[in-house]
Amino acid sequence: MDQIFAPWRIDWVEQGGNDEFEECVFCELPDVADPDREYNLLARSDQAFVLLNNYPYNPGHAMVIPHEHTGEYRNLDDEALLAKERLVQRTIDAMDEALQPDGYNVGYNLGHAAAGGSIGDHLHAHIVPRWQGDTNFMPVIGETNVIVEAVNDTYDRLHEAFEAQEDVDSSGPENAVTIDL
């Protein structure tokens, strides 16, 4: 059995999953009173928001999620599609500033078959920062991912990078970063 010590995960485990969300966590999460720090919501715009992945492939693994509930990429209207993709750009800018990766994997898991353990009925883009040599024998031979930084530490670094961007309003609830696209 593969085991990796990850003590920062206990807060997520003890909250009992997503029982507080009745329908769709991606629809309901932005409306929870001050969810940003507790749920690792990094930034938001009128059309979409950025959320750190709870089970990251690499430090900084984030998702850009449109507010519109759809699992079908073609259902987003032009305004929502452009705003979501601009937020993908801003996320990459924040990652460049905070994490200095060597590259990125950016993509979608469309449809329930492709989503695997993910949420297939609410579209979201995965942004995974990559570094030279970040894939070693552990995932290739040992079938185990090693996360080298606690999610909370990554949140702090990326949150600060989002706050430093132009067209950002930080006057809302504690920890909220709102981006004017």
Task: Explain how this protein is built.
This protein has seven helices and seven strands, in the order αααβββαβαβααββ. Strands 1-2-3-5-4 form a five-stranded antiparallel sheet. It has a two-stranded antiparallel sheet with strand order 6-7. The protein is globular. Helix 4 (about 80-100) crosses helix 7 (about 150-165). Strand 6 (about 170) and strand 7 form a beta hairpin. The mean pLDDT is about 80. The protein starts with 9 loop residues before the first helix and ends with a strand. The protein has about 180 residues and is an alpha+beta fold. The chain has helices spanning about 10-15, 25-30, 35-40, 80-100, 110-115, 135-140, 150-165; strands spanning about 40-45, 50, 60-65, 105-110, 125-130, 170, 180. The protein has one domain (about 5-180): HIT-like (HIT family, subunit A, 2-Layer Sandwich).
